[in-house]
């Protein structure tokens, strides 16, 4: 069993660390929040007073932090992971961050003698708690194989996407499809309402026709056709609109820095920005149908 240093014990990191402990690993963790450190102790982990204390004896380090600037600071900043972990330590960053930061930090890690993978997740807090997350992994094949048993303790589907940064690329490309398709499906329901077409009838037809997609058949943005979708519980998340906006912004940053043309991704980002600014940041992202209806 391995000694694991875990930094970032929030909504996702807390239950992920708990699953590593359940799998028999010794987890020493640090978070800026005292409450998060207390929760780690409750599930059998060892709270640390700072990043250095969490990682200096670790075989493996896992981080689950808000954004790229936090990841850069925690890894490459003074008193950070690269200064304090032993050469040969395996580094796993599961935060959702920009591709450029993921690649820059992995490069700095390699120079310090440590293999690093980017391993963002989908599955939300429910998946983190149940240990059923999907991991999209970027990095060398050898590092991926070393990481696999630890990722399996926290998730169910583990995919090697390619070299460094491609895990983050997979995450933002997938969520750009999701954001665009949710708006497309929502616009169709709003137009159907205006045209006197019953929502259930549109669902019955499109779910077996060429308009079929996950946003329609699994996560339908109007109440009724898919009883488990957030539309049936007043759009409680689920997947909050502000999280969708974060991922769409990351996709736009990546599109700009790589020169890719993503006009619908840009428009989806603008619409989710308006939706969040109208007081809907904590509403499920499928609630954008109400916003579109209100605009019509
Ligand atoms: P969170 O805000 O609950 O947790 C982040 C934690 O990092 C906080 O507890 C914070 O105190 C800690 N932190 C910040 N800076 C730190 C530092 N310098 N040192 C130590 N700790 C520090 O966020 P979360 O929901 O757990 O999300 C974490 C990451 O996972 C994000 O990148 C998010 O986009 C991604 N993600 C979240 C979900 C979800 O449903 N919540 C789903 C998929 C991916």
From TrEMBL:
Pathway, according to UniProt?
Answer: Amino-acid degradation; L-valine degradation
Under which main EC class is this enzyme filed?
Answer: oxidoreductase
Report the catalytic activity.
Answer: 3-hydroxy-2-methylpropanoate + NAD(+) = 2-methyl-3-oxopropanoate + NADH + H(+)
| Record-annotated 6-phosphogluconate dehydrogenase NADP-binding domain positions | 3-162
Q: Which family does it belong to?
A: Belongs to the HIBADH-related family.
The record ties this protein, via InterPro entries, to:
3-OH-isobutyrate_DH-rel_CS, 6-PGluconate_DH-like_C_sf, 6PGD_dom2, 6PGDH_NADP-bd, HIBADH, HIBADH-like_NADP-bd, HIBADH-related, NAD(P)-bd_dom_sf
Do you know which PANTHER family this protein is assigned to?
Answer: 3-HYDROXYISOBUTYRATE DEHYDROGENASE, MITOCHONDRIAL, 3-HYDROXYISOBUTYRATE DEHYDROGENASE-RELATED
Task: Name the UniProt key words of this record, in alphabetical order.
Answer: Branched-chain amino acid catabolism, NAD, Oxidoreductase
Quote one Gene Ontology molecular function term.
3-hydroxyisobutyrate dehydrogenase activity
Q: Which organism is it from?
A: Polymorphum gilvum (strain LMG 25793 / CGMCC 1.9160 / SL003B-26A1)
* Protein name, per record: 3-hydroxyisobutyrate dehydrogenase
- Highest taxon in the source lineage: Bacteria
Chain ranges passing through the membrane: none
């Amino acid at each position: 069993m391995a000694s694991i240093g875990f930094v970032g014990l929030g909504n996702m990191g807390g239950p992920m660390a708990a699953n590593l402990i359940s799998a028999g690993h010794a987890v020493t963790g640090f978070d800026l929040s005292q409450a998060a450190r207390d929760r780690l102790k409750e599930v059998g982990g060892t709270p640390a007073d700072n990043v250095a204390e969490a990682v200096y004896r670790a075989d493996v380090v896992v981080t689950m932090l808000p954004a790229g600037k936090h990841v850069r600071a925690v890894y490459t900043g003074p008193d950070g992971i690269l200064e304090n972990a032993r050469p040969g330590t395996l580094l796993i960053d599961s935060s959702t961050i920009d591709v450029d930061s993921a690649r820059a930090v992995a490069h700095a890690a390699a120079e310090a003698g440590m293999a690093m993978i980017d391993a963002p997740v989908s599955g939300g807090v429910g998946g983190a708690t149940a240990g059923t997350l999907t991991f999209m992994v970027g990095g060398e094949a050898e590092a991926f194989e070393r990481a696999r048993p630890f990722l399996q303790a926290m998730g169910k589907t583990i995919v090697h996407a390619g070299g460094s940064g491609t895990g983050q690329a997979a995450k933002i490309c997938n969520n750009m499809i999701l954001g665009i398709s949710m708006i497309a499906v929502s616009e169709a329901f709003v137009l159907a309402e205006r045209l006197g077409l019953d929502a259930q009838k549109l669902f019955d037809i499109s779910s077996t026709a060429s308009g079929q997609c996950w946003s329609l058949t699994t996560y339908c943005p109007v109440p009724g056709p898919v009883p488990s979708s957030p539309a049936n519980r007043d759009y409680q998340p689920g997947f909050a609109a502000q999280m969708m906006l974060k991922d769409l912004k990351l996709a736009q940053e990546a599109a700009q820095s790589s020169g890719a043309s993503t006009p619908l991704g840009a428009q989806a980002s603008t619409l989710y920005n308006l939706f969040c600014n109208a007081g809907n940041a904590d509403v499920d992202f499928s609630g954008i149908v109400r916003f579109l209806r209100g605009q019509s």
